[in-house]
Amino acid sequence: MRTFHFPAMSISLWSILNRFNSDKAATYSRLSTGTGHFRITVWDPALIVAQIVSVQCLYYFTMCVWITIISYIVGTSRSLDIIFEFKELNKVNSEKFVIAVFALNALSGATFIWRIVERYRLCLDFSCTIHTLHLAACVWYNRSLPTPFWWLLNASCAAITCICAEFLCMRTELNSIPVNSGQTPKVDL
């Protein structure tokens, strides 16, 4: 039976029991966990925090890029109020401009989740995290709760981000795994 060596930080009962031994590395097989999953995941809070920070920074960076590009095309002024100000969304002349920026940024956020997180099951979590942190930043910036249009726009963008990221991650996870590793196939199917 093949065994895999992992660090002592693990979520399985076997690794918790092995912590009392003098050996710091828990040795266990894939079948001994009883989960039936191919990939044994280890909870790594540093990795999760790094992924959240990187996705959030890229979210705001691309938001600024989209604002710059679209405001240059439309001919409006660029400002951080477009990102954080609730009153900016209520202006009739810039409403379509802001909707386009947020929609394009939702698609950009989906690609970031796809490339950084790479897990289908975590797309909803990271999409909600992006928009929850954006809500906290907006409330801190405005010192008040958002308008109903802001809630509608950001809920729609969170849904677009989640659905597109899940689609991209599913396509990546369902790719066929090459078994022959570059050798010519022995059987012609």
Describe this structure as you would to a colleague:
- The protein is mainly alpha-helical and 189 residues long.
- Helix content is 58%, strand content 4%.
- It has six helices and two strands.
- The protein has helices at residues 13-18, 45-74, 81-84, 95-117, 123-142, 148-173, and strands at 3-6, 26-29.
- Helix 2 (45-74) runs antiparallel to helix 4 (95-117), helix 2 (45-74) crosses helix 5 (123-142) and helix 5 packs antiparallel against helix 6 (148-173).
- The longest helix is centred in the first third of the chain and has 30 residues, at 45-74.
- The protein is elongated, with a radius of gyration of 23 Å.
Structure summarized in a few sentences:
The protein is 58% helix and 4% strand.
SSE layout:
Blueprint: E1 3-6, H1 13-18, E2 26-29, H2 45-74, H3 81-84, H4 95-117, H5 123-142, H6 148-173
Antiparallel strand pairs: 1-2
Average pLDDT, rounded to a whole number, is 77
Reported for the largest beta sheet, the result is: 2 strands, antiparallel
Distance between the termini: 32 Å
Record the strand order, biggest sheet.
1-2
Beta-strand fraction estimate = under 5%
pLDDT < 50 stretches: 1-34
